[in-house]
Amino acid sequence: VDNPERAVKFYSSIFGWDIPKWAGPQDYWLITTGSDGEPGINGAITRRTGNNTTVNTISVPSVDQFITKIKRAGGKAVTPKMPVPGIGYIAYCQDTEGNTFCIMQSDSSAGQ
């Protein structure tokens, strides 16, 4: 990201993630996305050094509610909520740094 502090504020305010700065010599913020027993992936935020080509998908209980939270935090939805038949609903969004990510709500009746 271009502004790590702004990105930390964005993601922690929306998803409730713990994102402390690593005490090492690099600008590196460790992300804990949930408890060890919860499916998912932890990660990190670093300063941008090139083009980002990864689009992460984040499970949420409600795409509509999280689009509202994302907009309030300075991000935006870049696609409307879309059904994935038999799976759920998704929407692609951008954070305050212009990075694209996907949010997904599980719902096996979607698109039926």
Structure report:
The protein has 112 residues and is of the alpha+beta class. Helices cover 20% and strands 27% of the residues. It has 2 helices and 7 strands; from the N terminus they run αβββαββββ. The chain has helices at residues 4-15, 63-72; strands at residues 28-31, 43-46, 57-59, 76-77, 82-84, 88-94, 100-106. The strands form 2 sheets. Strands 3, 4, 5, 6 and 7 form a 5-stranded mixed beta sheet that branches. A hairpin with a 3-residue loop joins strand 5 and strand 6. The protein is globular.
In round numbers, the mean pLDDT is: 89
How is the biggest beta sheet arranged?
A: 5 strands, mixed
Rg, alpha carbons = 15 Å
Count the beta strands: 7
H/I helix tally: 2
- The topology string of helices and strands comes to HEEEHEEEE
Distance from first to last alpha carbon: 38 Å
Helix content: 10-25%
What class do helices, strands and sheet pairing give? Answer: alpha+beta
Q: Spans of 5+ residues with little confidence (pLDDT < 50)?
A: none
Cα shape: globular
Strand content: 25-35%
